[in-house]
Design goal:
about 525 residues, alpha/beta, Rossmann fold, seven-stranded parallel beta sheet, 22 strands, binds nicotinamide-adenine-dinucleotide, binds (2R)-2-hydroxypentanedioic acid, NAD binding
Length: about 525
């Protein structure tokens, strides 16, 4: 039974599939104090939050079994993603479900700002009739500058176009083609800043976008500009905004998000030019249901080891590629586990080489699987999320390469392990109808099914060597299921690869190594 902890309010309808899942126990506890959260998260298999719960490194540390953190929404700045990655916890979000709601909210703020709707409402309910004080501006023919033309920025642009605004946008990933499709003019950040009557930000909050709009940016804006932030508090420098409104540079600001939330008695609220909402962009019934459905589905997939799509700390793999790579997954994992067990000494480098038909695909996901297979020999909590991180952290170099030559096979995956003592190379393939096979160990060609208990013996090719190994194993009640022998030259160095029916003890390994013709014996468990 999986325990799923939900710590922010989530649409009940949206979480129905979690609530009805026979293998899931849902625990919903909102407004938890930090100490309570640390206790509740300890036994959770998954944690679902919105933007309120702060999933900090100590929360992640306290979670003994956590496999996934789900964010019912887009921004994951309330989650310590690097800390989750280091622990192998998948972080998923629900990026699509609240796009329309947030774009509509931003548009509502844009019109409210242009026409002083919140201020004039406050005035009229005070019994006043101040028509001259609340003269607004039209949107028609004005320039709207959008910083960040992602999902929300693009939806907002469409709405602004319908109101006959000129839309200019800056986004480092914006192509001319997409700009044309969305109906905006692609511009530089500086052009947007200098030419717009309204400027709205729709980027994530990152090191690069913190204070993207600062005092310097305000100074370059048109006099009487109006600015909006319905993305993340901190993208606009609130102190600089306050000053720019005081000097008259900025005629108005609409804010849905704040550097600190809740903002309390924020100095900006003392300025009549500022209108604000309490982080309501995604607060519609539709958006809350959408994000709850999406995140619930993702969490169920992760817990049940099924494919999922919106991982924040894993590169997304298109469904078509996932399908193509699926058959190679077992081979990749077994090769990683096999190769590491043939190595000895301190691990320095893992080289993953694919050849043949695999060179035509993006095989990065297979590399993660190989790494996971290899590192799990040393480390207990390693998975596809944490494997590259853990390798890097331990100073293990990971090299990926593609070569065209596949030595008569349709494809090959080679895993090279370099330690401070030696280098080994193991190659495998997927044989049609037969499944994964190890076809080469260092310079020796073999045909080994990678599963169960294996014995890899390096020996001198002498008459009787095989028999003596068989006798010793028999005397220790170890049954040999299959056996392969590989050699380069008659009487030279050779290897035996045996499948045995039970694990080999240290004592038995030593006994085998005492034989004259044996160089070394490695027990491999797959
Ligand atoms: N107010 C709310 O309730 C609410 C609701 C949903 C989303 N959001 C926030 O809105 C923002 C946008 O969400 P989205 O779903 O459109 O995200 P998105 O990922 O689709 O779009 C973000 C865009 O910002 C661009 N970008 C990144 N750095 C930039 C920079 N320095 N300059 C210009 N562009 C840059 C990216 O290339 C991307 O296209 C996020 O911060 C999200 O957290 C707020
Ligand atoms: O949970 C919310 O209501 C806010 C969500 C929003 O900020 C987001 O980033 O998706």
């Amino acid at each position: 039974m999986f325990r799923v902890l939900i710590t922010d309010p989530l649409s009940r309808q949206g979480t129905e599939q979690l609530l009805n899942a026979p293998d899931v126990e849902v625990v919903q506890k909102t407004d938890l104090k930090k100490e309570e959260l640390l206790v509740e998260v300890a036994d959770a298999d998954a944690l679902i939050v919105r933007s309120q719960t702060q999933v900090t490194a100590d929360v992640i540390q306290a979670a003994r079994k956590l496999k996934a953190i789900g964010r019912a929404g887009v921004g994951v700045d309330n989650i310590d993603v690097p800390a989750a990655t280091a622990r192998g916890i998948v972080v998923v979000n629900a990026p699509d479900g609240n796009t329309i709601s947030t774009a509509e909210h931003t548009f509502a703020m844009l019109i409210s700002l242009a026409r002083n709707i919140p201020q004039s409402y406050q005035s009229i309910i005070r019994g006043e009739w101040k028509r001259k004080d609340y003269v607004g501006v039209e949107l028609n023919n004005k320039t709207l500058g959008i910083l960040g033309l992602g999902r929300i920025g693009a939806e907002l642009a469409k709405r602004a176009r319908a109101f006959h605004m000129n839309v200019v946008a800056f986004d480092p990933y914006l192509t001319e083609e997409r700009a044309e499709k969305v109906g905006v003019r692609k511009a530089t950040m500086d052009e947007v800043i200098r030419s717009s009557d309204f400027i709205t930000v729709h980027t994530p909050l990152t090191k690069e976008t913190r204070h993207l709009i600062d005092a310097g940016a305000f100074a370059r804006m048109k006099d009487g500009v109006r600015v909006l932030n319905c993305a993340r508090g901190g993208i606009i420098d609130e102190r600089a905004l306050y000053d720019a409104i005081q000097t008259g540079k900025v005629a108005g600001a609409a804010l849905d998000v704040f550097e600190t939330e809740p903002p309390g008695q924020h100095p900006l609220f003392s300025l009549p030019q500022v209108i604000a909402t309490p982080h309501l962009g995604a607060s519609t019934r539709e958006a809350q249901q959408n994000v709850a459905v999406d995140v619930s589905e993702e969490i169920l997939h992760i817990l049940r080891d099924e494919p999922f799509k919106n991982a924040v700390n894993l590169p997304s793999i298109p469904a078509e590629l996932q399908e193509k790579l699926r058959p190679y997954q077992t081979l990749a994992e077994k090769l990683g586990r096999f190769a590491i067990q043939t190595a000895e000494g301190a691990l320095e480098e893992i080289t993953i080489t694919v050849s043949g038909e695999l060179t035509e695909m993006d095989t990065a996901p297979l590399s993660r699987i190989i790494l996971k297979g290899a590192l799990s020999h040393y480390l207990s909590d390693v998975n596809y999320v944490s494997a590259p991180y853990l390798a890097r952290e331990r100073g293990v170099k990971v090299t990926e390469q593609k070569v065209s030559r596949s030595h008569g096979f349709t494809h090959l995956i080679h895993v090279g392990i370099r330690t401070d003592a030696k280098e080994t190379l193991v190659s495998g393939t997927l044989l049609n109808g037969l499944g994964p096979r190890i076809v080469k160990i260092d310079q020796y060609s073999v045909d080994v099914q990678p599963d169960g208990h294996l014995l890899l013996i390096h020996h001198h090719d002498r008459p009787g060597a095989i028999g003596r190994v068989g006798t010793i194993l028999g005397n220790h009640d170890v049954n040999i299921a299959t056996m392969q022998v590989g050699r380069k030259d008659i009487g030279g160095r050779a290897i035996m690869m045996l499948h045995v029916d039970k694990p080999i003890s240290e004592e038995l390994l030593k006994t085998l190594e005492e034989l004259d013709e044996i160089q070394n014996v490695t027990a491999i468990d797959l």
